[in-house]
Structure formats: structure tokens, C-alpha cells
Automatic annotation (TrEMBL):
One Pfam family it belongs to: CRCB
Gene: fluC
Name of the featured protein: Fluoride-specific ion channel FluC
A Gene Ontology biological process term: cellular detoxification of fluoride
Binding site for Na(+): G72, T75
Length: 119
């Protein structure tokens, strides 16, 4: 493990985490807290971005910075799990809707971006 690799992952991760925080805060300010729109949006955007990265075939230092670091810090599966549990406690259908939207739209975003860039 090279120091440069660790620094690239750390820089990307810190940037991705700050972007996630900013977007989630923005979503709460505009859409409220009744549904985790920020996390849903971040996970869909992250899925699209990783589709772009895969479609471009990122390798080496660019992959460490952007995929492992930035997108690893940006996407929020642990927050997704917590919010899903909270939604299921409120109403089973709300939790189910969130899971279906997150997974379905995330996979769609990835697939579209990947397919466009692989042409």
C-alpha cells in the first residue's frame, strides 16, 4: 500500500462525505424530513457516477480517488439502512417504497450511464 494511494482515497472520501452532507442538508431544507430524499438522491447520483466510472474504465490512481474515495464517501448505504428501518417502523409500505426506489432507480442510473459510455 503506497502513501499516495492512501492519500488519494482519503482526499476523495473527505470530498464525497462533504458533498453528501451538503446535498442531504439541502434536501432537508427544501423537502423536509418526512422522507429521506437526500439519501435517495445521493444513492441514485452515486450509482450513476459509478456507472460513468465503470463505462470509462477508470483504473489506477483515478479509480482510487474517484471510485474508492469520492464515491465511497458520497454514497450512503449505512444511512440508507438506518433510514429504511425507521421508515418500516412508521409504515411498512413507506420502507418498501424507499427500498424499491433506491435499488431500482440506482440500478437504472448505473445501467444507463454505463451503457451510454460503453458505446
Amino acid at each position: 500500500m503506497r502513501l499516495l494511494d492512501v492519500l488519494l482515497v482519503a482526499l476523495g472520501g473527505a470530498t464525497g462525505s462533504v458533498l453528501r452532507y451538503w446535498l442531504s442538508t439541502l434536501a432537508i431544507a427544501h423537502l423536509g424530513t418526512a422522507f429521506p430524499w437526500g439519501t435517495l438522491g445521493v444513492n441514485i447520483a452515486g450509482s450513476a457516477a459509478i456507472g460513468v466510472a465503470a463505462g470509462l474504465g477508470l483504473q489506477g490512481e483515478a479509480r482510487l480517488l474517484l471510485v474508492t474515495g469520492l464515491l465511497g464517501g458520497f454514497t450512503t448505504f449505512s444511512a440508507f439502512s438506518l433510514e429504511t428501518g425507521a421508515l418500516f417502523e412508521r409504515a411498512w409500505w413507506l420502507g418498501a417504497l424507499y427500498v424499491l426506489a433506491s435499488v431500482g432507480l440506482g440500478l437504472a442510473a448505473f445501467s444507463i450511464c454505463y451503457a451510454v459510455l460503453k458505446k
